[in-house]
Design brief:
By secondary structure, this protein is mainly α. It has a domain at 101-186. Helix content is 67%, strand content 0%. It has 5 helices and no strands. Helix 4 (93-138) runs antiparallel to helix 5. The longest helix is centred in the middle third of the chain and has 46 residues, at 93-138. 6% of the residues are buried. The model is unreliable at 64-90 (pLDDT under 50).
Length: 186
């Protein structure tokens, strides 16, 4: 049995150098050739291609069955329940400029709300840090009378900070669902 194990080990180790993997350069060359064969055989369409075709049909007066929104931009989850303004179908520089101005105005409103939420969050975080320090000092004293108010203050401060953080995140989510670019919120 032992000689069989040794013989199989020698046999496997002897075949190891004969079996070689494909080098990285050879694999890259092979993939490049494969893609070159496929390059002319198919066309991919993006959302912008579909929107251009829909606006072209709208200008020509044809019916546009799928002009509302692209499938990849469909909201999911909580976003599906919120009202979302329909995109302009007729295009035109005037409509897009008005839409962009509207987005900027809404972005400014959301920015003001986010700034107020961030100020509230900063105050809540400062109160939480102060409460933690108070708790650390009170926990060193063996007197229960000092520990309970400090613990209650710490818990209240943690809850307030979490509520403020959630409020800020909800405002950012609402702006995102309305299609406001993140840059307008900064």
């Amino acid at each position: 049995m032992r000689s069989l194990t040794i013989a199989s080990s020698v046999l496997l180790l002897g075949w190891g150098p004969m079996v070689q993997g494909q080098s990285l350069g050879a694999a890259a060359e092979k993939e490049k050739e494969r893609r070159a064969k496929l390059a002319g055989s198919s066309k991919s369409y993006s959302d912008s291609d579909l929107q251009k075709a829909a606006s072209k049909r709208a200008r020509e007066g044809e019916a546009t069955p799928g002009a509302q929104a692209s499938p990849s931009a469909a909201p999911t989850g909580k976003a599906a329940a919120s009202p979302r303004p329909a995109p302009a179908e007729s295009g035109g520089a005037k409509d897009s400029a008005a839409s962009e101005a509207d987005k900027k105005a809404r972005g400014a409103e959301y920015k003001a709300r986010i700034d107020a939420a961030n100020a509230r969050l900063n105050r809540a975080e400062a109160e939480r840090r102060a409460a933690e320090e108070n708790w650390n000092q009170a926990s060193q004293h063996p007197t229960y009378i000092l520990n309970e108010p400090a613990r209650a203050r710490l818990e209240a401060a943690r809850k307030e900070a979490e509520i403020a953080r959630r409020e800020r995140d909800d405002i950012e989510d609402a702006a995102r669902r309305e299609g406001i670019p993140p840059g307008y919120l900064r």
